[in-house]
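Could you join me in thinking about how sequence relates to backbone shape in a protein? We need material for that, and I hope you will provide a protein of your own picking. Once you have written the record down, we can walk along the chain together:

…
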Amino acid sequence: MKHTILAGLLFYTTCAFSAGFFIPPSPFFPDTTTKTAEEETVIEDNPSADYAPYLVTDIMNTAKDNQPVTLSGKIIQRIKTGVYLFRDNSGDIQVYFDADELPKQGMHLNIPAAITGEVDRQPKQPVRVDADNIVFIF
């Protein structure tokens, strides 16, 4: 009796796999399911969903307030608590980190890093980036 049940289960799962009815999730391949029109609208309407790469000069000259950005370069100096000077090949800009956004291992100076955040433009203040995340590239 057990052999019959196991044989039937094996037959069923083999047929299901070969017909494509059951495809196990794979850590090696991304999810290829299509999004509904409603999901696509939410993604397109959310400006913070896309942190486009920018140079410091682009941020200083053309970026708008609260525009999401990604910077690649190095933190070169601590200005004061939570405020650091960031440098890429085009120039320098101040980057502000809230206390909960600072890396637990501490801030590493002169190490390549990628920062995501939003542009902060205030009257009579230097343009800066309010950082959401920093990743050090060792």
User: Anything to note?
Assistant: The beta strands are 52-53, 68-80, 83-88, 91-96, 112-120, 128-136. The radius of gyration is 24 Å. DSSP finds three helices and six strands in the chain.
